[in-house]
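Hello, quick one for you while I still have it in my head. A protein chain has come my way and I'm curious about its shape. Can you walk me through what the tokens say about the fold? No rush at all, and the record is pasted right below.
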Amino acid sequence: MGMTDAELAAHLATVAGKLLLTVRESGVISGKALGIAGDATANQFLCHALRQQRPEDAVLSEEENDDLSRLSASRVWIVDPVDGTREYGEARPDWAVHVGLAINGEAAAGAVALPDAGVVLRSDRPVDVPPAPRQLRIVISRTRPAEQAVGLAEALCAELVPMGSAGAKAMAVIRGEADIYLHSGGQYEWDNCAPVAVARAHGLHCSRIDGSALAYNQADTFMPDLLICRKEHADRVLVEIARLSRG
């Protein structure tokens, strides 16, 4: 299959999403067990497919033991088979499938599937990002809203929009459902590699909350914080975050 990296990411995210819907719709598993089964099923498909289609590349998945030999690879596929396992297990729509590719530490290509919406957003086919409304909207975790995001909302007179998975929140900015995604409670590389690749391809600002660059394929996969927003809002948001951090 002679697909580009972005085409492969989109194809795999789409198929994994369909597999996950099939597992959920089987009706024989529910709750936490559904999340475990979905994660395992999607992970097996994604990792086997990537290793067959891109045998020279490394793979980092949330659902597999980390093979640190990836650190010597310049190309690393970073996947989250089910981003928002709780939401998936509860049959909520705000979960996603992430298939991202980091090249030399940068999120270079990827796709994020939102299976319940029948949508796959991808780095090689950007769509128009709708203009922001007068009152900005900050998308936050529905279970663990970041303190900085709440403070930022007050500073910008913005509305808070609770939502599930990191991928769903990042894609909400592209889809015009939100304007700023600020997370400071800690994530891992698989939580945001694919979303960042897709968001950058759509012309959005992506960085750490101090404005520094995001780096992937690190020995420690923990990523403390993340900011995704429209470029016209980035400077003001970063200034306000710095002020809140000092406060």
In short: The helical segments are 5-25, 31-53, 85-89, 147-156, 166-174, 189-201, 231-246. The mean pLDDT is 96. Residues 137-246 form a domain with the D-Maltodextrin-Binding Protein; domain 2 fold (CATH 3.40.190.80).
